[in-house]
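Run folding on both entries below.
>entry_1
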Amino acid sequence: MSRVLAELTVDECLTLLAGTPMGRVVFTDRALPAIRPVNHIVDAGAVIIRSRLGGSVASTVGSARGVVVAYQADQIDPHEHTGWSVVATGTARLVTDPADKARYERLLRPWVSMDADCVIRIEPQLLTGYRLVDPAAAAR
């Protein structure tokens, strides 16, 4: 069953990210690539995640200047070979404004039982995405 890749617009990428609750944050940990699954929300074009302050994601992002990360989310049907994948690449920073932090803590509950005491905002500078589609549907 052959499929083609259809490139998504930035708006489509943001809509798909906002419509799925989890993805993977990609960052550098001790000079090596690291990936962690996390749940997220999208707010004003930014991807918001929570982490444990002593954890590797938060420790990496902890600098005031931020750090470049990638955030990837997808929904793929392995039987039909259809779905989509979106990657947001940009700067991640700790949310330090008390009002913003409190609002995100209310909106975003961690899925794992851990003390997620920090909030991280990823501001995408590059949003790319693709949808796996049936060639006949892509021609329409």
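>entry_2
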Amino acid sequence: MTEPALRRLALSVLMPGFTGTTPPPWLRRTVTEGLAGVCLFGHNVEGADQVRALTAALRDERPDVLVASDEEGGSVTRLDAGLGSPWPGAATLGALDDPQATYDVAVGLGRQARACGVDLVLAPVVDVNSEPDNPVIGVRSFGASTDLVSRHGAAFVRGLQDAGVAACAKHFPGHGATTTDSHVGLPVLDVSRSVWSERDLPPFAAVVDAGTAAVMTAHVVVRALDDQPATTSAAVLRILRDELGFDGVVVSDALDMRAIADAPGGRAAGAARALAAGVDLLCVGNPTFPDGYDEVAVLEEIVAAITAAVTDGTLPLTRLEEASRRVGRLAARPVSDPLPAPDRDALIAAGTAVAARALTVAGDIRLRDDAVVVVPRPVTGYAAGRKASALVAELQARRPGWRFAESLDDTVPAEDTDVLVVVEGADTVALAPAVAAVLDVRPDAVVVHGGLRRADDQGARTIHTHGSGAATARATALLLLGEEEE
């Protein structure tokens, strides 16, 4: 095979991120050369019209280029990174446990993505969140029950794909039992194969049966399966192919995550190992978060590693060609023309109606006309990115005269002034002392718990939202204020 042909083949299995809100020249060039696609991140998005122009510009270079985006609803969105997702997240849908509602949300989310030119949605998360202190999955999962995750994962896949976008269920073989975030380290699970196969495998079987177009790997070592991360483990990926019968596209989680990037040879060597193991499409990652890097240099480094691996025989050419064919089939899959997406107000109204049904309330949580809102600083999750509280933004818009602070100061609010504590972020347990400090002064404070529900959650007057995002925030604000959707 000639060097240009091998380079084109290597590009055909790569999906990098890029900086900017328009396609840079290097990206246009490599799309023309055969780059499989791109993954959008929050910094690529200013609004729906801009994203449509961006994706149209990419398709002007090559019509079958793939455009992917993390659109899970709730805390994880790229298309709505600036304003918050208009759709409730997985834990909210799991708490409601209405598969029809989950399907409807996925249809709405899929239509929104399709209207923007996105054709591969990196969702749903079908990890069973069996570890309450999981730092990266948490409310991104439908829950801690295998059956619950299975039925909602399947419903979400069907909804997305009925809306005309390809679904990518994640993160095989399961990231829900970890206590390490693979963005910052390599999670290792010491669990028996029988526990894993009964707890973590069934949701993936369910989404494969539902016809998911793609499955994303986890950078997680499950010792009972192999001593390598699943992304680079042929033994693990054979389970997906041979036991579950999956013949779609296996997508890697981002190669710039430290579970792969910090391994010998870094992300470039990891890319070649992943392809050799059975991955078809390599997600390179986000060149701005958490650590910035030269997106062009990294792409070329990975291309060089793939071509070198083919040359030295560690990556069989037939395996690379197989991966390229699978990605090509995904890019060429027949889909209907995109329907016009409803405007944002309509999207939020639909999402809010679902989120409102999932809120769990204890005590009288309605606030009076004057309140102090305490917002302890949350721990930011890497998957969600850096963003302010959508609930705080909603309350500030509706009650601009209220006071918002990270803690109560020396002045205790008067008895006719309500106190509201908003507990959000990746690690709500870390905020427990801050909540206790408020309740010591004002035991009548209303506490909004935005994370996973726990037996030791504080407060006598509480709302559990089971997640965040614009839809959940609006539903919560309306309930607190005794208002109705306009």
